[in-house]
Amino acid sequence: MAKVKKTPRPKAETPKGFRDYFGADVTERKQMLDAIAKVYHAHGFDPLESSAVETVEALGKFLPDVDRPNEGVFAWQEADDDTWLALRYDLTAPLARVFAQHRNDLPTPYRRFAMGPVWRNEKPGPGRFRQFYQCDADTVGTASVAADAEICMMLADALEAVGIERGDYVIRVNNRKVLNGVLEVAGLPDEATKERGIVLRAIDKLDRLGSDGVQALLGEGRKDDSGDFTEGAGLDGSQAKTVMGFMEATGSTVDETLSNLSVLVGDNETGSDGVNELRQIADYCADAGYGPDRIVVDPSVVRGLGYYTGPVFEAELTFEIKDEKGRPRQFGSVAGGGRYDDLVKRFTGQAVPATGISIGVDRLLAALRMKGRIGADTQGPVVVTVMDRDRMADYQAMAAMLRAAGIRAEVYLGNPKNFGNQLKYADKRQSPVAIIQGSDEAERGVVQIKDLVLGAEIAETASVEEWKEQKQQFECPLDEMVAKVQEILDR
Amino acid sequence: MAKVKKTPRPKAETPKGFRDYFGADVTERKQMLDAIAKVYHAHGFDPLESSAVETVEALGKFLPDVDRPNEGVFAWQEADDDTWLALRYDLTAPLARVFAQHRNDLPTPYRRFAMGPVWRNEKPGPGRFRQFYQCDADTVGTASVAADAEICMMLADALEAVGIERGDYVIRVNNRKVLNGVLEVAGLPDEATKERGIVLRAIDKLDRLGSDGVQALLGEGRKDDSGDFTEGAGLDGSQAKTVMGFMEATGSTVDETLSNLSVLVGDNETGSDGVNELRQIADYCADAGYGPDRIVVDPSVVRGLGYYTGPVFEAELTFEIKDEKGRPRQFGSVAGGGRYDDLVKRFTGQAVPATGISIGVDRLLAALRMKGRIGADTQGPVVVTVMDRDRMADYQAMAAMLRAAGIRAEVYLGNPKNFGNQLKYADKRQSPVAIIQGSDEAERGVVQIKDLVLGAEIAETASVEEWKEQKQQFECPLDEMVAKVQEILDR
């Protein structure tokens, strides 16, 4: 007889590159974002939650005339009108769309913050996910560098609010205009996009390749240890010297750095503008008490994105961690941003200057975990165990008494037959306390309180005598239960 | 000479059926969800944030063998392996996948709550969006009706925590098993899916169609006012009577309702099980002080979804509002849920009983707004105006002083030339206070404080004398500024 073919069971798996966040992961991220939101809100920034889905046209990074414009994004076509939609890949492109769409109703300047997931259709790898959180603050509609300075100072406040101590971070500020000025002086005009691209990437690698490596990339090119050759920008000796001078312009004071830069750009207009803007930002910050221990001018900051047009910022955590080979290194970048004056113009045709910062939520969370600055609230609930199935109402009442006193509590709702399973459950929940009341205790109006934290300690370290004392479990009248549990939690 | 064709500008529009949430919209929703999360957390529920993207296979509602399985969801195909991915359409299907995937690491029973956007690929209409929030709490892995009772009581606590007063809501509980028992008694076995479907939909329409309308749908069918005919379930007189009896079983007490139901199901096993479960739930709730003024057995609750297998719940707000024609009606449903014992089984083959509730976030928010229970924190920041562009640092310092005292404050960062624009900006921001300091005030160490709330009142109602007094603006020493602003905010 032929068997009836069954529909195969679906696989219980997240799609490749996606993950779920449980319990403490969710709570800790929320705790951090709430602290940041409080700082941003205090500075007059308003929350914005734009839709997760945008038209591919509005997102902009992609060509509307290719057959399937989903390079880098998750995209699909509407059924009825062929419009391509996509999940947002960052929070800046949607902000530009929102401001262009609602500019008549929004105040100008518009200060906004946004927190939420973004999606990238990239090859997933270890620790690289296709959905992750961003946390942005931007000011749209003002060309004033006071807005750039404000963003930097507010970022410093936000880092301190979540628990990064002063001295453990620094916000580096540079200006694309200075770099552009230097490149013009070096004889690389605006049109030399390819060479400029190579120069930008080379500067970005100073940390990793050192001065010699960068110099090679500015000239003919560089062969790495594996023998692979990277094409260089083809600058001659004097051009390369100018660019290297830019990266090495950092002096022992902000003034020294700025005058080094002034010399490099000479009378180049773009460059001089840039140096002046940097000076103003440094002055605003210093006047407000944010000195170079927190916010510093640093010519080696480039920032990858093409759309920056003026000041660029990068926040780095400076405390040491060990890399995968056990060598000490700085924790590194947790936030970056800058001025982008042309994103809204795409929609409106009118220039709308804007500046902002984006915090890498997962990076900052990882730093806080390393420093032990987060995770206080991961304790499980008090578990009221079930000795007698018919007395569920009594157990529910105990849990309610505890909750009324502000103590997280629940009744065990699995099969109560095997009491060991109930205690295993409490362990898995990281419960601090279990409550036990059999019919004997019920008659006498008492409960057993089991201190699971102390119990675990005793199990690990106690002598035979201590073990026998069984201090981790004691009896108390029902009407003292809440106070006794509170004592254990306070310890 | 031929003109160079320009690329057309992208449209600054949200995709059809999507929207953006600004300022107070975001804050108020967060405030409400935080209050609900606090209640759920106190009951031992852990937060879960699953990925927004699932495989279509895991979402399950859809056939894997159709060419483009995006009926109702936003779906697309992976570039490299043809897997169909989709945005989640609710939070229950992902929970089933998460539990099946992680069941060895999760505690059982697993209590979890989840809050976040879900997406539906439906035709958008007025007030109907394709992205909206859900807020769910579920207990997975226990068949105990104590879990169902807990969900109902916790929902009552959550509604009160966000500001719905006792008496303004009721949680109605029914049981699919009772209904199934009644249908079996009426001679409609399990296999009569089509007829059962018609009966379920008919019961769900009792409110709207009244007893006669439902009776017609149970029988041959019903012609509505426009002449459209809806096919009926084809029950005969005695069958229809049994079903009508079910809907009309509500007595003046819970006991009366339950014994009416007992009579209807007779010795039908499914039905008797259901009545017993309802009795247990009602007892648990009553014992814990949640009487029929808050949680009530109501045989007319059906709940649309096919996957419910036992108790079903519905929370209704009972206060009156006016409908679109100005007639009074109850606000209606804000949450619904029930027991679904087969969703995890799809993945694992083993039965995993589960029960839960989902709050309609936008509906509940709308109710809170109507009752004036939310929206306290929508005040804009104090705006420090700019009289003298060279003294930005001083203005920044004033804003910092205010923030240090916990007062939301910002410096005007637009073009300061036109002072009227600065005040218009403060208006648009709903600022309570503007700070003004020209060079004259600066020399004397004072500031002007402009009370914008009082100013608006005077502008509307003041007599000429009051107007002349100009009480809404006064001068004070800089070191008293914070205290004076605080006085205005406290008023």
Largest interface: A-B, 95 and 95 residues
> CATH superfamily of the largest domain in chain A, please?
Bira Bifunctional Protein, Domain 2
Count of helices of chain A? 18
Report the count of strand segments of chain A: 19
Total domains of chain A: 2
Question: What is the alpha-carbon Rg of chain A in Å?
Answer: 30 Å
- Report the helical percentage of chain A: 40-55%
Q: How would a textbook summarize the main sheet of chain A?
A: 8 strands, mixed
Distance between the termini of chain A: 69 Å
Stretches of chain A where pLDDT is under 50 for at least 5 consecutive residues are: 62-69
Strand order of the largest sheet of chain A: 2-6-7-14-13-12-8-11
Instruction: Report the sheet-strand fraction of chain A.
Output: 15-25%
Multimer state: homodimer
Report the CATH topology name of the largest domain in chain A.
BirA Bifunctional Protein, domain 2
Mean pLDDT of chain A: 89
Shape of chain A: elongated
Structural class of the secondary elements of chain A? alpha+beta
The appropriate CATH architecture of the largest domain in chain A is 2-Layer Sandwich
CATH hierarchy, class of the largest domain in chain A: Alpha Beta
